[in-house]
Design brief:
With about 500 residues, the protein is an alpha/beta fold. It has helices at about 1-35, 75-85, 100-110, 160-165, 175-195, 210-220, 300-310, 350-365, 370-390, 395-410, 415-425, 435-450, 455-475, 480-485, 490-495, 495-505; strands at about 40-45, 50-60, 110-115, 130-140, 145-150, 200-205, 240-245, 250, 265, 285, 290, 330-335, 340-345. The strands form four sheets. Strands 3-4-5-6-7-9-11 form a seven-stranded mixed beta sheet, with helices on both faces. The protein has a two-stranded antiparallel ribbon with strand order 1-2.
Length: about 500
């Protein structure tokens, strides 16, 4: 018995020593990062007509970190986000040079042999993707490595909005998976072109659409997608950080396994974009998820939000949105007997909870299966999004603000509410039903917002598909429908990249 107790005590001591050594090594790397990171100026666009200036803190020491560690290095996350921002399509150049910002940043931090795919340097289509790659030779802990940096375009992609809604009937999100294969193929050709061999680390990032595709790419790399190239890449050699990524993987594929712990997803609980494609359809993300603070996940949120807003006002692109008022979200209800839209003062639901309930309602009641989505909505959404973002309907946040303001104003007009109240009692009436009312509402809003650049055929398609969705939503849940319309800008502004940038800078001691 004494021998057994002695053996157990020895094991405990060994584990304690190992843990102390590991913690000490991690602390040493953290200190090296803080002491060696240097500032690099770069430019980025976030969807408007302008590019902006920002600063990245970079050091090669980031690649001494363990990407599977329980906690992530906040400075590395912020630096990776800077690479993400630079990988957005520039709006101050012709299409042939839309990758200019990421090209310049990679060069500044010492990465060479830069290449971007043709789709990054061409007018985007519904199913295109932009990817930029460069590499850098490093010696890490006495071992020679080639680090390959991969930035996937996540903003300024215009017509690719159509692809975001191409779910497909089975398997991974159809469009994201299609582009995952293109990125993997581009990486293989790059590795071959530059004769890269031996020990390799991969630094991969993307935002929003780029994050969703990047998440699938990272999962594929962990599953051996680059094995045929002959490079030596282990689990701790992939640094994949994706920001505000929609879900494109399938939960049935065991994507939450510890095998994918080197894939980190960051998102704002107020952002509805990462909630699609819906988990109700079986979608999810590879790897682990880290959340920015919210009223529902952090008891010190109020204090942290004030600090974040101070940082946010120093982010050049914050001017694209009027403010960050997500905590002023209010539930509404439609009282058909009185023909009014009123605040639901008995319902104190916060925006993150409402978004989860909204998405669940959409995916379990309104559009209960992927087949129904594909049959009734997929093509319509593709067309609408291409018209909005490639056809010139919305060219920036100001256009969206104008449209949504006019929409809310027109919806609350007494005559419109009276028509809506009557239509609610007989929604399928061919002359006075919901189809007619919402058609008139959208056309009136387009006119008031002076959106007259669309060709008549595009206008007809846009109106028809938007009206179809509104009618279905209102017939199923009028309260949720009016709540969405009344809070539309809150859904939009929270996804702007300046918000994530502010949170990441607040976390990173190098910025403070």
């Amino acid at each position: 018995m004494k021998k057994i107790l002695s053996l157990i005590l020895s094991l405990v001591m060994l584990l304690t020593i190992a843990s102390t050594v590991t913690a000490s090594a991690a602390s040493s790397v953290e200190n090296q990062i803080l002491s060696t990171a240097k500032p690099y100026a770069f430019r980025y666009s976030s969807g408007s007509e302008h590019d902006y200036d920002a600063t990245m803190y970079y050091t090669d020491k980031y690649f001494l970190l363990d990407p599977t560690a329980t906690s992530f290095n906040k400075s590395f996350a912020a630096a990776t986000y800077c690479l993400t921002l630079a990988s957005f399509g520039s709006n101050e150049t012709e299409y042939e040079e839309r990758d200019i910002n990421v090209k310049n940043l990679m060069k500044k931090i010492g990465f060479k042999n830069y290449k971007s795919n043709k789709e990054f340097r061409s007018e985007p289509t519904a199913d295109s993707i932009g990817v930029a790659v460069a590499n850098k030779k490093m010696k890490l802990n006495g071992k020679k490595y080639t680090v390959i940096a991969v930035g996937i375009r996540g903003a300024g992609y215009e017509g690719e909005w159509g692809g975001n809604f191409t779910l497909g009937r089975i398997g991974q999100h159809s469009d994201f998976a299609f582009n995952k294969d293109k990125v993997i193929s581009f990486l293989k050709k790059y590795i071959k072109k530059y004769n890269i061999s031996g020990n390799v680390k991969i630094w991969l990032t993307g935002y929003s659409r780029g994050g969703a595709v990047g998440n699938l790419v990272a999962g594929a790399i962990d599953d051996g997608a680059l094995k045929s190239t002959g490079i030596k890449t282990g689990k701790k050699d992939l640094y994949a950080m994706l920001f505000e990524p929609p879900a494109g993987g399938m939960l049935a594929d065991n994507i939450k396994s510890s095998k994918y712990n080197n894939i980190l997803n960051f998102y704002n609980p107020y952002d509805i974009i990462p909630l699609v494609a819906m988990k109700e359809y079986g979608f999810g993300r590879y790897g682990r998820t880290f959340y920015y603070p919210s009223v529902e996940n952090d008891k010190n949120y109020s204090k942290k939000k004030k600090q974040m807003l101070k940082v946010w006002k120093t982010v050049a692109s914050h001017e694209e949105i009027d403010g960050y008022d997500v905590d002023e979200f209010q539930m509404y209800k439609f009282i058909s007997t009185d023909g009014v839209i009123a605040e639901d003062t008995d319902n104190n639901m916060k925006l993150p909870t409402f978004e989860k309930k909204l998405v669940h309602w959409l995916a379990s009641e309104l559009v209960p299966t992927r087949d129904v989505f594909v049959d009734e909505y997929q093509n319509g959404f593709r067309v609408v999004m291409q018209i909005m973002f490639a056809g010139g309907l919305f060219t920036g946040q100001a256009d969206a603000q104008e449209f949504f303001d006019c929409l809310v104003h027109n919806l609350e007009e007494k005559s419109m509410l009276e028509r809506l109240s009557a239509a609610a009692n007989d929604p399928v009436d061919p002359e006075f039903g919901l189809q007619t009312v919402f058609h008139d509402l959208i056309v009136e809003t387009m006119n008031d917002a002076e959106f007259n650049s669309l060709a008549p055929a595009d206008l007809a398609v846009f109106v028809r598909n938007v009206v179809h969705l509104l009618v279905k939503m209102f017939m199923s849940n009028p309260d949720y429908t009016v709540t969405v319309v009344k809070n539309l800008m809150k859904f939009v502004t929270v996804h702007y990249p300046s918000v994530s940038f502010a949170w990441l800078q607040l976390w990173d001691p190098l910025y403070s």
